[in-house]
Structure formats: C-alpha cells, structure tokens
Amino acid sequence: MALLKVGSKAPVFVTHLEFVGTKCQIFCQVGDVGGQADTLAERVHESVENGLASPISGCNVGDLCLALFNEDGSWYRGKVLQNLGHSLKVYFIDYGNTETVKMNDIRSAPDYVLAIPALSTKCIVSDCTPLSGIWADEEKKKIETMLHSGEFICEIMESDVNTEVYRVKLYSNDASNTPIFVRPAPSSSLSIKSQNLKVGQDYEVYVSYVESSRKFWVQLKSHENDLNSLMSDISACFAEDLPSTGDIVNPTEGQVCAACFSDDGAFYRSIVKNIQGSNCTVFFLDYGNNEEKRTSELFTLPQALCQLPVQAVQCSYKVDSQAIDDKLHDLAEDEGPSLLKVLSGNTKSGYVVEINSIEQILNVPKETSQISQAKSASKLWQSYSSVVMQADGIYDVCLSHIDHPGQFYVQLLGNASNLDKLMQAIDEVAHNYDKLTNLYQGYQCLAKFSDGSWYRGEVVTAEVGKTVVAAVDFGFVEVVQPSQLRNTDPNFKLQPAQAVKCTLDLNKTAHSMWTAAEIDNFKGLSEKNTLVAKVSLKKGCIHQVDLYETENGVERHINTEINNKSTVNPSRAASQIQAKPQPVSAPPAVVLSPPEVSVGSKYKLCFTAVKSLYMYGQLTSTSVEKVAKLQTDLNTFFEKKSGEALLKAEVGSVCCTQYVDGGWYRGIVTSVAGGKAEVAFVDFGDSVMKSVNDLKILPPSLCSLPQQCILCKIVNLPSTVGSSGLEKLINKRVEVKLNGKEDGVYPTYGTEITDRQILEQYQEPQGSRPAVFKGASSRTFGRPQKDETSSVPRYDLFNITLVIL
C-alpha cells in the first residue's frame, strides 16, 4: 500500500476487520498477491515439515515467528505483541488477526520465509460509521458479512507513513464509481430535476405505471441506458446487508430519499408524501408508483445518485374511456416501446398525450372492434418476480411439482443452496409473524401446507373459510386454513420465486390432452435428482422444454420416452405395425451459451495457446470442479457409447471430438474443406483439423456450462512482438480488459493487457530487473502443453491435471 499515492485505486481482498471506537478498521491484501501468498504458504509448510523451523523457548515483543492457527491447523507468519509466559499474543502479519498461541505452537522463522514482505495492510474505511454513534451488534454483523473475504476496489484518501495506516473508500467491482459507504449530504437539501417534453414532438416511451387513462407515467426510451446504469449504482450502494432501520430522522414531505419496493426488494429513488405519524407514502420517482412505508425505513440518497433527472413523466390521455385504460395497462406489461405525441401540458401539471397504437385501435370501425384478445399471461406470480429461463437456454433442473406433462414446475439447481437457506430461515421464524386478515388475490404470505412445512406463498383465491394458496418456490397449490397463514418479512421477498412453469408441448397444456399412462410415466420422474432442460419455445410465462437425463453415461430424451410409453389402442395396433416408417428427422441443432463476458469489462484470463497473432484465453472465474465434472461426464459418455455422428458439419456447428490424448472435448467448427473440418476447442482453446466423420453431436445434457475460452487479439503490446513472443504468456494468469468484439464463429475480442508487470516484461530487455512475485493463485483447469513430436498443443486433461500458477 505504501507504493500507492493518495487518489490512486487498487484491488483489495479483505482478510479481517475490527470495530474501534466509531471506526471500521479492515486488514486487506492489496493487488494481485495470490501468487505471493501461495509461495509463502509453500515455504512455511516446507520449513515446518523439514525441521527448518525449530521450536523456541522464548520470544521478545516484536520478534517475527511462525505460529500455529488452531482453527485450520495451519502455520502462518506472526509478530509477537505480548509474552504471557506459557503463551504469546501473536499478530498474523499476512492476514491482520491477533490470537493467543501456546508456546509449544511457536517456531522460529527462517530468513527465506521472511523474505516476502508482510501481505496485510491496515486501513480505515471512510464514511463507514455507526448510525447512532455507537456500533450495535446488528450493524457489526452486517458489515462483517458485507466486507469479510470480499474483493473490492479501494481508493486511497489519506496515508500516514508513520503508522502505516490508510484511510480508504471501498467500491464494488461491479460499480467502480459508486462508493459502498457514502457520507450523506443533508437529505433536506437534495433535489432531482424533472424532464421537460416539447409540445408537438413525438417520443418513444415505455408505459411504466397506470392509475387510469387520466393519470399514468411513461419513461423515455432515449434514457433507457442511463436508467439501467443508475439502477446498477443504486443496487451497489444499497446492498442487502444494510441495517434494518433507515438513517433519516424526522423526514419531511417532499424530501428525497431511497426506499425499498417490497415487491422486488430493490431500492429506488423516492420522495416522501403524506406523513401520518410513523407512516408515510413514498412515490418512486423513476417509475410512477407509490407504496406505504414506515418513516424508519427511509434511507438518505447519495448526491451522486441525484444527477439523472426524474425518469417517470406524468401523462394524461386526451380522452377518457375504459378501453383506453385497458390498453394502457396492456402497454405497461409490454416489453416494447410505444410512440407518444405530446399535445399540451408541462412538467408540473403533467402532459396531455396520445399514443400511436391506441389511436389505431380507436380508429378501427366499431363492428370490427368487438373482438378482444385475452391478455397474455406474461407474469406467473402477481406479487413476486420469477426466475428467468431464456429461449434456447440449457439448464440443470429438478422437477418441483407435476400436474401432467403439459403443466409442471422446475427449479434451477444453481439456486438450490440459496433456496435451502431461505426455507430454513422461514421455518425458524414463520410462527412469530402476525396472522393474516383481509386477504385478497395476489397477497404475499407465509403458509403452512399439509406436509407441516412453511413456504413462501401467494393467495390464489380468498373466500370465507377457504383460502387457496400457491407455493411460489415449488408450484403446488393447496387449500390452507387461515390459522396457518402469516404475514411475511420484506427479507423473504428479495429472492425471485423459484418455481418455473413448463410444458413438454405448448399445444397440449390441458390435462385432458394426456393419457393416464403418459401422466403416470412422467410423474415417475419426480424421484430423479437432476435433469437437463433445453427451452425450445416460450409463450408468456410458460416454457416448452426438452428434458434429458444422463445415467451411467447413457443419455435419455424424456420427451421421446413419455410418448413412446403411451398405451396403444388395441383396435389400431395392427394398422400401426403395418404403417410405412416415417423418415427420421435430424436432431435439433445444439446451442452452446457464449462466454459470460462483456465489452468494457476486466477479467482474469489464463492464456492457453497462440493462433497466429491471437491468443486463446480461458476464463478463470469458473470453478475447477465444474470444468472437471464436465470433462469427466464427456469422457464417460463417449466411453459407454459411440455417440451420434454430426451429419452435416458446417461453420459454426457445435460438436464434440477427440484430441491426440484420447480425450473428448467440446468444440466449434470454424472451417470445412475437402472432408476435413477445423475444430476450435471452446473450453481450452487451440484448434485441430479432423475428418468430418470424427465429429460427434454434443449431448444437450453437456451444454449447460457456457463456453469457457475466448480468442484474444492483444492490442497494446509492441508491434515487434510476434507469435514467439506471445508464447511467453502461455499458462500465465493475466488481467485484461475487453475493448471490442470482432466478427467470427469463435468469440473474438480486442484485448488490452492491464497487468503492468506483464507489459513491462515486453518493454524491457530480458534480465534487466529482478524477478517479482506476480498474480493470485489460479486453480485453472487443463492448460495446453506443447507436444514435442507435433506442432499441435496437447491437453493434459484426461487425468484432470490442475495447474497452479
């Protein structure tokens, strides 16, 4: 940290924190010190195991040593703070925590272990102070949860060279311009400008909220990106771990604030209205709706989030009718923009407008306007947002509830851990909440179902003595006695509803369209733990899916099995047997999700191979376990069966093929000529020429993991660096920024290396400076190694080799 100047920024990893007075002190490792930490751990372990670190009988205050940390049984470097006789008070210089260690668990530290400078730096977090002036236990717990073991960007505000303590601002990696902690300006002085529309001008708008045709709100499409950016900054500023009580004392009407919308658990820019004792109404400035809140739930909005003008523009339609009300509500649910014309009005009183799509309906002859279409059911639950499954997406799922093959519910396995924690929390506290009164359709609640468990629920129908409730995380519906219903907590509304409505066939969504045999066969699948779902179509909130299961390396297409196991009508059996066989259709094209990267963002890549003046870079953000499981499943699948041949190899075809090591890898065809195809491996980089007969169809069950590798064109190395110079980067973990995307079937990006030490290696002669420790530990999987007998890189993957950088 001493190398950084006031005003500079650097990545940090928080290892420990303490609350001293009104300050929050953190101990953090600055920059990419993971490589140093790994080297240090190896040296410490080696010195203890080989007897190079000998026991000591006594220590002086200030001495450096090795001390055993009992919680994990590992040895770490420490500094003696106090001699307690049979034990020492030790400060762990690489992590910041202090422990009392028995003298028997102290060793001398060899010089080569002490050669690496201390990795932990003490900082005071700017603007992180207790709301009441004294740290409450709840505040401490939430801030510790927010910061401990977290990766952030820190900005140096002040430095004290004598004490080596720094005051810093912390920023989220996802919102590097908005501090996590902000010293609020007096909220009464905050103001947000309104937008002015020009009379007679046309605007593309989204209808955001409708009270009636006389009062509704729109957002300008031209500000869509600005609003999305603002919401990202608000989300980063108001994290989930905020105190339960807001920091605004005695709010006044018209005061700008930040308030949580209970339906989605997100914070929005708001203004206070209609204060009645400890309650008030907040108006959400960027959307137009409002909600009743307690005054203690209001938070100060940072000045930086007040720069964008109010996005919700109040409007009134030029005429008033129920038909226009209905159409406006439809437009509010529509994802597309509408063309609006301003007829009169101003910002203060609102604008009188007309909307092109409504005018077209009003001008239709009366006799043809009698036919109305049913509103599309685009929202499954009225009071909860839902988990999103995209068309052509491939997901690991489990079946949570089955009505019949035309209607069932799935949960994404990737969300299982969070759902388990949520269910446990609900079960622990649900009985403490108030019983419900004045129920209505769409009401959010906690419900105790017939199995004795509590679930997040939504009221489907509410009649006297009979309340039907849906379990929004599972999909099943039951009649629940009023005594078994409770009000819910705002914290339980944060997660989207986990039940996703699906069907095997959008043309057969009714129970009567399926035979008893088909329903029974399908319900037998409820015992299966894991399935793979490929979304082929979406209609509103219903997803048509193909379901697959891989068992012992054999893949089963559930949709086909359900149809094949149907009971055959005996009177038609003979004609069915004698019927002319129909041609077998080609399997549907396999779709592989692209790498999870975006232009303008920074990533850590491990470069795996050189292709001319390009390099293959493997993302290091995916866990080794996921990639290892993919490779194991791939090889198991093709060991047990030969697989289906790729009938038509075309540029862009996703496939699977063997490499020279005998292993199977996912790939994409980049060129085809003369019965040969060039295949680029999507998870590890590099390419090979293969006969088109050697290409296999990639099973859909093995497509859920997105592509792990991208092709990089390095844009900021000297022009004299050729392919031989680029090879020096192979197997190195390097921070880069993606500046632009190039056309091509293999995701290719203009790439800027942001790692200063790497850049210096290419600008200075070899040996001009001493070697330095660089880079965090990277458990990257399967880096390519050059085969001495071939010009093609060989993957040392079949035995699941881990490379530690």
Main traits of this protein?
globular, alpha+beta, 44 strands, 805 residues
Q: What would your notes on this structure say?
A:
With 805 residues, the protein is of the alpha+beta class. It is built from 13 helices and 44 strands. The strands form ten sheets. Strands 1-2-8-10-9 form a five-stranded mixed β-barrel. A hairpin with a 5-residue loop joins strand 25 (466-471) and strand 26 (477-480). The protein is globular and about 90 Å long. The two termini are 23 Å apart. Residues 364-377, 566-587 and 764-805 have low confidence and may be disordered.
The spatial strand order of the largest sheet comes to 1-2-8-10-9
Beta-strand content: 35-45%
The overall average pLDDT, rounded, is 81
Q: How many angstroms separate the termini? A: 23 Å
Largest sheet: 5 strands, mixed, barrel
Shape: globular
Proportion of residues in helical segments: 10-25%
* Unreliable parts: 364-377, 566-587, 764-805
Structural class: alpha+beta
Computed over alpha carbons, the radius of gyration is 31 Å
Topology (elements, then pairings):
Blueprint: E1 9-20, E2 23-30, H1 34-49, E3 64-69, E4 74-83, E5 87-92, E6 98-102, E7 106-107, H2 111-114, E8 120-125, H3 137-147, E9 151-160, E10 165-172, E11 175-179, E12 202-212, E13 215-220, H4 224-237, E14 256-261, E15 266-276, E16 279-284, E17 290-294, E18 313-317, H5 322-333, E19 338-346, E20 350-355, H6 356-362, E21 394-404, E22 407-412, H7 416-429, E23 444-448, E24 454-463, E25 466-471, E26 477-480, E27 485-486, E28 500-503, H8 516-523, E29 531-539, E30 542-551, E31 554-557, H9 558-564, H10 570-578, E32 602-611, E33 614-619, H11 624-640, E34 654-658, E35 664-673, E36 676-681, E37 687-691, E38 709-714, H12 723-726, E39 733-742, E40 748-753, H13 756-763, E41 779-781, E42 784-786, E43 793-795, E44 802-804
Parallel strand pairs: 8-10, 18-20, 28-30, 38-40
Antiparallel strand pairs: 1-2, 1-9, 2-8, 3-4, 3-7, 4-5, 5-6, 9-10, 10-11, 12-13, 12-19, 13-18, 14-15, 15-16, 16-17, 19-20, 21-22, 21-29, 22-28, 23-24, 23-27, 24-25, 25-26, 29-30, 30-31, 32-33, 32-39, 33-38, 34-35, 35-36, 36-37, 39-40, 41-44, 42-43
